[in-house]
Amino acid sequence: MSRISTMPFISPLLTMFLLLYSVTYTSFADELPVKQNKPIINIPAAEARLASKSLLLDITKVNPNKLVVVGEHGHILLSSDAVNWQQAKVPLQTTLTSVFFVNNELGWAVGHDATILNTVDGGATWQIQQYMPELEKPLFDIIFKTPTEGIAIGAYGLVFRTNDGGVSWHNEFHTEFLLPEDAEYLAEIKNEDEEAYLDEASSILPHFNRLVLDKQTLYMVGEIGLMAKSDNFGVTWEPFDDIYQGSFFDISKTKQGDFLVAGLRGHVFQSKDNGITWQAIQTHTTALINDIVLSADDRIFLLANNGTLLESKDQGQSYQLRAQKDGKSLIAGVWFNGKLIAVSDVGVKLISL
Question: Would the pTM count as exceeding 0.70?
Fold first, then answer.
């Protein structure tokens, strides 16, 4: 999940793509290899006694008895009670932004430097499937439909896909997210200035922030009001109509079948007709909303910056502010054993409700 909205990252223009994009007005996927100009030295994540109190960026519930969190310095932690945490063995110190498990044993984590890690033992140990520091782009989210079919998304329209469980990952460029004038511009410079074309193509798409799979439909939200859905697991995308020009950081489907999207400056929108129309919901906050958490007792929580926590007891129609005294940003959360467990820049937080 894209919980990196509070994290800075380096994103210079890139010139190392070897295979050019073929710009059209329809979607396509193309592999984009990257030159490695210098040897890569992997430094394993160090064991840290206070890792559970450091900057953490995502949390997932693997099963009713296990949580996994990821964050800076390659920290990955496991817990059965959200109080006691065990640090996993991780081969990199790269900041990790999102974690996803397809079953009790098989999981993936992504982060800066287009990093993709994999575990086959429930998160105790992790292996590198992809690490591309030359790319200098972070991945923000990853999701798998089956143990073999997965995609990861990130900054400037970065997309990687695997059909073999991560043995190989292939870069995709999705032109359906290009503005018409941008597509025309790329087409004009493609044959005139190769270096300029590569620079522009590498940074012209918006950031892709979050993926959510609902049965056979995949949803994505991102920068500049991006919302889209796919019925073929992201091979092609159908953008929703524009409703807001600010960034969205999460999308969720409630138990009643309504959709919620949330993002910058406290903006929340709800759709009761599968995304055809959207209604703005008043939150009475301007805090950036990072995550939407659904509780087992039909409450909805919005986790936001500056210690802002919003709670809804009426299916998302209205929200009550539950400000956290320490003012720390709530970056991601899960409902676990009747409690809201969140991660923040001061680690794991058990929030009293």
Answer: yes
